[in-house]
Design a protein that fits this description.
By secondary structure, this protein is α+β, with helices and mostly antiparallel strands. The chain has helices at 11-24, 29-43, 50-59, 65-72, 75-84, 89-99, 109-125, 130-139, 219-241, 264-273, 287-290, 327-330, 351-363, 371-380, 389-399, 403-408, 454-470, and strands spanning 168-173, 189-192, 205-208, 244-250, 291-292, 297-298, 414-417, 421-422, 428-429, 433-436, 440-447, 474-481, 486-490. The radius of gyration is 39 Å and the shape is elongated.
């Protein structure tokens, strides 16, 4: 049912929220008793009998709070409360899950997973403190529901009111027998006015709704209210009977001793039983062909059989476990440069890292005006330290102080840095820099701190061959040994 899908109805979720409220207010004894009840009754059902639970709650008055909590909570939780209350809300709930081993309760795993997803989404949009989350949960969060597949092998239970506007292939109405009039045991008050004394001294007179009003001055008010009740309940019957797309199964108890038509079930039976008295020219259905007096059943149309739909992927799967790890074991911060936080360069331009860093800087440079921005990008990612920016910028400006190289970094070319080319065999090639205009295309491959080698020439030759097949114009290739200040033309 829809109510069973509300996260707020899950014992596990209620317990976690109660723990958060305990962290905010450890002296709230009502909340403490609720925590004890939820934890021992629903989350540890195999460890405590009802009599033991009653004894535990009764002893709460006699025992010191600290001693009582030690008997209730895991020791690790008691000892770490001051620490975990400092955590962001998601990590805090994740820690509670581990400490109380909530991720081992198989039946509650879907609710736990959905709750953590909601908490994570909340923490992205709002402050991640407990107080803000509790306020949001009480106002909006508890309305969240568990998302499930519409195609799973299950029956969905809805009230008639909540089914308005919806349709289903098969609908079962197991209790089609609600009262047409207001229920007698309910107190329904009519607010009436009349010109008859002494009631006319009041602008409105509160009167209890009952059939005895038919013999009073409030007869018209009673009949009007009765008519509205009949219309409302007949409309409800209409909604119930029009939800099915293919098959409708409706069950109503038979009360032959009933002297009047007081429910929709008895109303339908009256219609079936007395169909012969109806005018056939005003009836949409000939009941005589569809009503079986012996079996007391009404059948119309043909029963449509459900067709099994084969799918490559299942619509549902069983969640058997939910892993939870300490945040220290989840995340490792990878520093590309050891001096990122210390400010002291250990070896920023070692040969191991130097070539990679310079390659990445040149990857972000299309023209000379991009030099500063390209260096800042690597500083922000932690790959070089800020105090090295002047040195690196000066070095790049010096190597670009060459007529041929400066032309390569001018804005008169169409420039592509590190652009992937997919080959016919499925593999890819990625030249460092390709510049082109209407007449020709130039391939430039950077080398930092290396000696000239034949394999470098073979690599650029392969790039030339690839682009020559792709473009009907002249293709040139160059190896640029930046630190050696050498530009080597590569002949195809």
């Amino acid at each position: 049912s829809n109510d069973s899908l509300f996260l707020a109805n899950s014992s596990l979720v209620k317990f976690i929220v109660a723990i958060l409220e305990y962290i905010l207010d450890p002296m709230d004894e009502i909340n403490l008793s609720f925590i004890a009840y939820e934890y021992k009754r629903y989350l540890q059902t195999d460890q405590l009998l009802n009599t033991d639970l009653h004894e535990l709650l009764r002893n709460h008055k006699n025992d010191d709070n600290e001693d009582w909590l030690k008997n209730l909570f895991p020791t690790e939780f008691i000892e770490s409360i001051d620490q975990i209350k400092q955590l962001p809300i998601y990590e805090l709930i994740d820690r509670i899950t581990r400490l109380f081993r909530l991720n081992e309760i198989k039946s509650e795993l879907p609710f736990l997973k959905s709750f953590l997803d909601i908490v994570l989404d909340f923490s992205k949009k709002s402050a991640s403190d407990i107080h803000t989350f509790i306020n949001w949960w009480n106002e909006d969060g508890q309305k969240k529901t568990l998302s499930i597949s519409e195609n799973q092998n299950a029956i969905r239970i809805l009230t008639v009111h909540s089914s308005k506007g919806l349709e289903f292939k098969n609908v079962i109405i197991p209790f089609c027998n609600w009262n047409i009039d207001h229920k007698s045991f309910q107190t329904n008050i009519l607010w009436c006015n009349t010109n008859i004394e002494p009631f006319n001294q009041l602008a409105l007179v509160p009167v209890k709704y009952s059939k005895s009003l038919i013999n009073t001055v409030f007869k018209q008010d009673y009949q009007k209210e009765k008519l509205h009740a009949y219309v409302d309940n007949l409309n409800l019957l209409y909604v119930a009977l029009t939800r099915a797309k293919e098959n409708l199964f409706c069950f109503s108890p038979l009360k032959e001793s009933a002297k009047s038509t007081t429910s929709v079930g008895s109303l339908m039976y009256f219609a079936y039983k007395n169909h012969k008295n109806f005018s056939t020219n005003q009836s949409l259905i000939d009941f005589s062909e569809n009503w079986n007096e012996d079996e007391l059943s009404f059948e119309l149309g043909e029963l449509k059989q459900a067709k099994e739909i084969k799918k490559d992927l299942p619509d549902e799967f069983e969640l058997n476990q939910f892993e939870s790890y300490d945040i220290k074991n989840k995340l490792r911060l990878k520093l590309h440069d050891n001096s990122f936080f210390t400010g002291k360069e250990s070896a920023p331009f070692e040969k191991v890292n130097y070539g990679k860093v310079m390659h990445e800087i040149f990857e972000n440079i299309k023209t000379e005006k991009d030099i500063s921005h390209a260096i800042d990008k690597l500083i922000f990612s932690g790959k070089i330290s800020p105090d090295k920016k002047p040195e690196i910028k000066q070095k790049i400006e010096e190597v670009l102080d060459n007529v041929q190289i400066r032309n390569w970094f001018s804005d008169e070319w169409q420039i592509k840095n590190e652009a992937e080319v997919i080959l016919t065999n499925g593999k890819t090639a990625r030249p460092d820099r390709v510049i082109s205009n209407k007449e020709k295309t130039i391939i430039i491959d950077y080398k930092f701190g290396e000696q000239e080698e034949e394999k470098h020439h073979k690599q650029v030759k392969s790039y030339i061959e690839i682009l020559s097949k792709m473009e009907d114009k002249q293709v040139e290739g160059y190896l640029w040994y930046v630190d050696l200040n050498i530009i080597a033309a590569v002949n195809n």
